[in-house]
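Worked example 2:
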Amino acid sequence: MSDRHLTEEQVSSEQVYRGHFLDVRRDEVRLPDGTLAAREYIVHPGAVMIVPLLDDGRLVVERQYRYPLGRVMLEFPAGKLDPGEPPLQCAIRELMEETGYTAREWARAGILHNAIAYSNEGIEVWFARGLQAGERSLDAGEFLDVGIATAEELEAQAASGELTDAKTLIGLLWLQNWRAGRWALNWGPA
């Protein structure tokens, strides 16, 4: 089945803002019916998110203040890809930098697109197990607390509305389905 009848074609593109992190574009597109429309969106380099599994089944989580929301958020470890950096290398780096943990085994679950209406950001979801605690190495200006939680505790926080971070909710969904035997993970060494 072809999606041609839904496809928009770029006519022109303009960078309207370029900051340290954000790259905002405004494009003119031709809609399937031939009319023109504007599309504003953020170009993002991509990121990773890690679901870190301790040997006893509990999970490593973080609490970090997120300025746009004006509150501390509960999240799985995550971080932005550096230019040219393979996603697994980024996952290994971010887990160690933010939590101090290294992992013996890794599995790529998939990719999520958390803001499809206004960003091309893709976040690769990785699982890590065989964790070994160590010293963390936070980036300058990065402040976060590392904690431990059970899946049941995270599920209760999601149900109550306390846990609202999209990537963490997707990680929890992957975890539930993997543990139930519905979704596979292919584990390998780092």
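The chain has a mean pLDDT of 96. The two ends are 39 Å apart (CA to CA).
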